Amino acid sequence: MATIDTVRSAPTTAKTRSYQASRRLRRTTLYLVVIILAIIFAFPFFYTVSSSLKGQWEVLLFPPTLLPDVPQWLNYVRVFQVTPFGTWLLNTITVVVLSTSGAVISSTLVGYSLARFRYRGRDLLLMLALATMMLPGQVTLIPQFLLFNKLGWINTIRPLWIPAWFGGGAFNIFLMRQFMMTLPVELDEAASIDGASRLRTFLTILVPLCKPAIATMAVISFMGNWSDFMSPLIYLNSQDKFTVAVGLNYFKAVPASSEEQFYHYLMAACVISLAPCIVMFFSAQRYFVRGIAMTGLKG
Amino acid sequence: MDLAVGKPLSANRRLSLLARIVGAESELKKKDALQGYLFALPWIIGLVVFVAGPILVSVYLSLNDYSVLSGATWVGLANYRRAFLEDPLFWPSLGRTLYYAGAVVPISLVGSLLLATLLNQKLRGTNAFRSLFFLPHLTPTVALAVLWSWLLHPHLGPVNMVIQALGLEPYPFLTTRQTVIPSMIMISTWSSVGGNNMLIFLAGLQGVPAELYEAADIDGASSARKFLNITLPMISPSILFNLVMGIIGALKVFGLAYVATNGGPNYGSWFFALHIYSQAFAYFRLGYGSALAWFFAAILIVFTMIQLRLSNRWVFYAGAN
Q1: Phi, psi of B205 (to 5 degrees)
Q2: What's the half-sphere exposure (Cβ side, CA atoms, 13 Å) at B78?
Q3: Which pLDDT score, from 0 to 100, does residue A233 have?
């Protein structure tokens, strides 16, 4: 402590002063750059929200205004009146809840099997999971379409969530397996000595310990399912079955009434469709950021 | 992990056939192994029904002329020949996709690394900035396309209004063949540069041991030198991961072009994934669509393999020798 004090109280030479000045200049420049970048990334959002609250002609005003004169909150109500947006939201929520829970439950089970059991073909199952991650979805899409067509599932939301219950995808299986490998196997053994069955050990010991990984997986698959566009585009053809993603695309292509300029409604619909992702991100940021970082480091 | 395989026969003799099939050493372990299969059952079924089965069917379909109504007619490699020689959209859409990916991948990779480096400067409010940078990545593709096709609208969009207010000609971002792909490259860069790539780089940068930089400081190394000789090698596994995933993602570009321009104007943004989609699900040429999908899969796999093969020349794993 004494040495530090003497150093601090020593008269500052011109050299250290110029060093401090250049350091301060550097920090200021960095802050400036970060703030400008933040504006570039955030401004389109701000402008979307602002436009969604403008009047029908105000949104097309030249030159464009930054804020609405009077916020038109009714735009958000009108979106639900001019389009079946309520139905689309409900469909999307159903798909997201069913597919996310399916992915979480089944990949946790499979991860447990791959991390804690010994049987012939176990490593092959893991390898095949990793291999399917390389294969583009397009290859299996057409046969899957034929399969769902044969089952009479076209124009229902079933193709969008039922497959998630069968393993929840290679990535999730791999994530759960890796996470469980880091948990000490002695915990399982202790439970087994106490007479717990494998299922009981899984439910009472491993699942509670896996909560962080489960939360990460739930957040990531929520986002993926919410924004998914190609599968609902392929499987859903009537308006009352649409999810928000295909609905928004449809809404964009077919204006509410042919002559009406509808950009303010369209922007309101955009805000509604991206709000859940943003809310989810901010409320579960910790899990999300860790999950993404984990995938990168494992790769 | 099949420990039973190497055991002497005498130990195995008393075991039931089932135990030997599942690779168990004792009857007790047999029961355990069977439970293992039970827990893995969702994935075993999923693998057969949604992956392996469809792969086989897809190979078969690609060798057939197939429609939902009339069924399959064997045509051998005719679908592939048609793609390579007769389909006027095949090579252009492939070239366009490579052009797009060739621009998006390096731009967003370098951009993400710069952003991550910036966030790693221990500035105050780093978490808030990280969240702001990440916002665009959270936008669902359809909303992204709708949003930007309005912002860039030739007459009504605010960007062109500002351009006109400055006394310039409106710029036809998404409405001419020459400008549509550069505009899409810009949109994707905006949406992806602060996304997952940046978070992965940031985690990588934070994992570089401070001692390395301290040692370099003692040797009087400049910032640029430290970046080139310490930072880059230490985060090279993250670079590889982002590169591989970035190329796969960029080659699969679909939603942005489908929603913003529907592949237009005049096929100007008709990417390969759009071509597969329209052949398979707009014209229901499922055989031809499968052939296109296999060609696409081959390209992706070859790209990934080449990168992984080349990676041991430049990727440094700190834990390995």
Answers
A1: -65, -40
A2: 9
A3: 94
Summarised one tens digit per residue, pLDDT across range B117-129 is: 999 988 888 888 9
Q: Where are the domains of chain B?
A: 3-62, 82-314
Q: Which two tokens stand for residue A102?
A: 């399916």
Partner residue facing A144 (CB), from B54, B118, B202:
B54
Cα A185 from Cα B101, distance rounded (Å) = 45
Burial B171-208 (b: 16+ CB within 10 A, else e): bbbbbeeebbbebbbbbbbbbbbbbbbbbbbbbbbeeb
What value of ipTM does the predicted structure carry? 0.85
Q: Are B188 and B101 in contact (CB under 8 A)?
A: no
Q: Which CATH architecture has domain B82-314?
A: Orthogonal Bundle (1.10)
Give, for B64, the enclosing helix (H) or strand (E): strand B64-67
CB B141 within 8 A of CB A227: yes
Say yes or no for a CB contact (<8 Å) between A42 and B132: yes
Residue A169 pLDDT: 86
A45 vs B: CB within 8 A: yes
Look at the alpha carbons of B30, B33, B38, B43 in this order and tell me if their dihedral is positive or negative: negative
B132-191 per-position pLDDT tens digit: 999 899 889 999 998 898 889 888 788 888 888 888 888 889 989 999 999 999 999 999
Q: What integer pLDDT is reported at residue B6 of this predicted model?
A: 47
CA separation for the pair B35, B15 (Å, rounded): 18
Helix (H) / strand (E) element for B65: namely strand B64-67
Residue A26, judged by CB atoms within 10 A of its CB (0-12, 13-18, 19+), counts as: exposed
List C-alpha distances in Å: A99 to A164, A224, A280: 5, 10, 16
Rounded to the nearest integer, the mean pLDDT of chain A is: 85
Q: Residue A229 and residue B50: Cβ atoms within 8 Å?
A: no
Instruction: Name the token pair of B107.
Output: 């731009």
User: To which H or E segment does residue A194 belong?
Assistant: none
Write the CB contacts of B25 (distance below 8 Å, at least 6 apart in sequence). B3, B4, B7, B11, B15
Q: How big is the CA angle at A220 (ends B35 and A144), to the nearest 5 degrees?
A: 65
Q: Residue window 253-282, chain A: list those with CB within 8 Å of chain B.
A: 261, 263, 266-267, 269-270, 273-274, 277-278, 281-282
